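Late entry, inosinic acid complex.
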Amino acid sequence: MPPTSPRPRLPLPARTGTIAVIDAQFGDTGKGKFVDLFADWADIVARGTGGANAGHTIYVGDKEFVFHLLPSGILKKHTVNIIGRGVAFDPAVVAHELTLLKKTRRASGKLRIAYNAPVVMPQHILLDRVREHLAGQGKIGTTGRGIGPLYEDQVRRVGITVNDLLNKDLLRAKLTRNLSEKLLYFKLADKTLLRELLHMPLLGSGAFFHPRTLLNVESLIDAYTVYGNAFREFVDDTDSYLRGQHGKKKILLEGAQGVMLSVDYGTYPYVTASDSSAIGLARGVGLHPKDISATYALIKGFYMTRVGEGPFPTELGGSMSARWCGDGEVNKENEFSRVPEASPNHHDPFIQGVGLRIAGGEYGATTGRPRRVGWLDLPLLRYALQFGGTSLILTKLDVLDDCEEIKVCTEYIYRGPRVAVGQIKLTPGKKLFTAIPAAEILTHCEPVLKKFPGWRQRLRACRRAGALPRELRQLIQFLERQVGTHASLVSVGPRPEETVVL
Ligand code: IMP
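Prediction complete; structure with ligand written out below:
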């Protein structure tokens, strides 16, 4: 471990300002570290998208904390932390995280929860899991946290909000309405599967199971009003609060997932169910996208990952890797013994991908699933940056320390059937400089890879831009020119001080 040095001085607005930290790829770019660093600057940290499907790791000294829903400023005494209206609010997860927080024995920031945020309930998690189970090959590969069914309910106008948990009669009426159609669906599903799922700890370990009606509505009402009482002091009109503070305070908007997983802009249908771009983030906290003065877009430095199903043109090992990562058998503990020859320099792309996954510790924070690994994809990045990104942050660069050669995808060659995309006619052999995100197109895009020499140097001790190896600086300049966006920070290790300001 390199010696500890002070936290870096970040290029942030001196007085007030609203900034956003988002992920310009498929999530998991290491937002936690930067949101935590930026939270030193912020008076207010707000989440506006995603839910317990996201997970960020924060280090306090040598201790590691994984939070899914509490904003990253929660460990800072003077920060107001907001779980905004756009967040999929899972009371069980928040209750657990508040208990964890107490265990840190550190003074925590103030918490405010949007009274109108949609609430994830056991029926959402159940539905998410039953559907994925039934979908077989057609599954999305969700995190199984009920996110899709939750937002569906919101659009279907049968959602339950945080405020309903404070009012038992309201909750009963809304829950009855919410469940009516779902219970019909569950009647057709496999009873053994439903019973098993409802006995998982995530679903109350059987507390909500009813042998005849499947779900015990009264115990749901009791449990969720207990949560309501526990959270009562935090519940607020956070949209109005933030609008009132905008322009007066330093506000940090903390993104979740990544632009390419956005339901509006991502690789539909292999996406999450909220808009994880900067636009969705602003809306999710009651602000206008134009209220954001700077958007820091995170990408992994020169490789990429994706969890779950969906197209991934630069994936090392292609469909073999996708199957390997999706079969449920592989995990952090057993992968190296299954592929002992794994190395970031192996000539076989699949084995090379395993090597990079092991080097980068690329296993899901929420599900433990192995993340699919591929090279940096510029057509996707050019596309993603259209939805926000005033500057780039490159993370996990030290993962490539041992790589002899690094490849970057500069454009695609379309290899699929003739198809019209609006006015664009795609024919086999056509070159694409910017990605068209529809899954049925991306699946047929072959990456054109440009090779660069690796740096073969330990980056973790670097603290100044001038100390970065020449090969890396050239690669960063190439990237900046290719996407027309400046890189402002790079991360050379997981610790806050392992950061270089460019
Ligand atoms: P859901 O958000 O659980 O519905 O999952 C939909 C898709 O988004 C799946 O491919 C998930 O693997 C992916 N996903 C959701 N949250 C995250 C995240 O925080 N990191 C990476 N992928 C995610």
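Residues 168-188 form the longest helix (21 residues). Will revisit in the morning.
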